[in-house]
Amino acid sequence: QEQVVESGGGLVEAGGSLRLSCAASGFTLGTYTIGWFRQAPGREREAVSCISGRDGDTYYRDSVKGRSTISRDNARNTVSLQMNSLRPEDPDVYYCAAAIRWVCFDYGMDFWGNGTLVTVSS
């Protein structure tokens, strides 16, 4: 059964950094699009960053461009999201999701992890 599991969330001071990891099991992560999404209470889930399994194309939402980097390690079957200069508006539950196609919106993904919480203190 295909599954992705997130890790790396936690409490960080504003301006600090976190590295989120998405570990895959039951499928070869390198052949899938892997995306990071986030959702705050009462708000819609939004795409943060995605990376294509086919050619490594990436997408970043405007608010994280220049301070976030998505990368994959096919040998370890993981995708990471390095987030720097974290802001008070960044705290959310962050989800990893996978899709067989190159997509980066929530209803286009095929399966999801349970999420990891990111909290930023001011």
Walk me through the structure.
With 122 residues, this protein is mainly β. Helix content is 0%, strand content 50%. It contains no helices and eleven strands. It has strands spanning 3-7, 10-13, 18-25, 33-39, 46-51, 58-60, 68-73, 78-83, 92-99, 111-112, 116-121. Strands 2, 4, 5, 6, 9, 10 and 11 form a seven-stranded mixed beta sheet that branches. A four-stranded antiparallel beta sheet has the order 1-3-8-7, with no helix packed on it. It is globular and about 40 Å long. The model has no long low-confidence stretch (mean pLDDT 93).
Task: Note the topology.
Layout: E1 3-7, E2 10-13, E3 18-25, E4 33-39, E5 46-51, E6 58-60, E7 68-73, E8 78-83, E9 92-99, E10 111-112, E11 116-121
Parallel strand pairs: 2-11
Antiparallel strand pairs: 1-3, 3-8, 4-5, 4-9, 5-6, 7-8, 9-10, 9-11
**Beta-strand residue fraction:** over 45%
What structural class should be given to the helix and strand makeup?
Answer: mainly beta
Specify the biggest β-sheet. Answer: 7 strands, mixed
N-to-C CA distance: 41 Å
Number of strands: 11
Helical segment tally?
A: 0
Share of residues in helices: under 10%
Poorly predicted ranges: none
Mean pLDDT: 93
Backbone CA Rg = 13 Å
The best one-word shape is globular
Secondary-structure element series: EEEEEEEEEEE
